[in-house]
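*** Query protein ***
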Amino acid sequence: MKKAFLSFITLIIFTITSKAAEITVYAAADLTYAFAEIEKVYENKFPKDKLKIIYGSSGKGYTQIINGAPYDIIFSADMGYVEKLKQQGYIISEVKPYAVGRIVLWTLKNSGIDVSKGINAVLDPKVKKIAIANWEHAPYGVAAKECLEHYKLYDKVKDKLVLGENISQTAQYVETGAADVGFIALSIAKSDKLMREGVYYLLPDTCHKQILQGVGILKNASSDKEKLETAKRFFDFMSTPEARKIMIKYGFVLPGEKD
């Protein structure tokens, strides 16, 4: 009886003193739907850990971090930003690639625009506005612009371009009718919502530089032991079969996987 009582008291003390560690993750907007699923799986596996995920363009995330934003991990759609943060002392872990992104031309099913023709669909007379992520800070915007230039279409359509802050906003422009077609991430186009609403054409990866994406644990995570341990767990979790399966579902090409 005494032993059981002591065990009960120990359990109460542990419950009171142990606290859930929350980390703030800055994630590229192309991860929105994949991470919604990954977050659920991760928190079911590690119920004491909490993830607060902020989505945005990779360039904006980089700028916010060097200006003091308290993020603990960054998942960038451009490996270059993560490497730069490492060089500048903001990242305390190894820097590693977690995925390669693919880009598509997307439109609503009822738009009357046949994107199966490929990128030349942007020349359809029905296309008045073309949504594209701002290439100043969004890697998918860079890739889309490179594809337009590769096919010598940029000068023909540059006056029709509508710039989104990130790849999610770019998709929203097409969804709401602010644009007729848009260059978006395959990972966004493969979400249940956008699969119901629209159709896409996967652009050849030969028309743009590889969208190599990188991750690193940020210095801010080291401010608290539990936070750092959680950051490491999530960092490692992204390499597990469970996380990889979800990433592949959304069209990402992963390290060690063939396109």
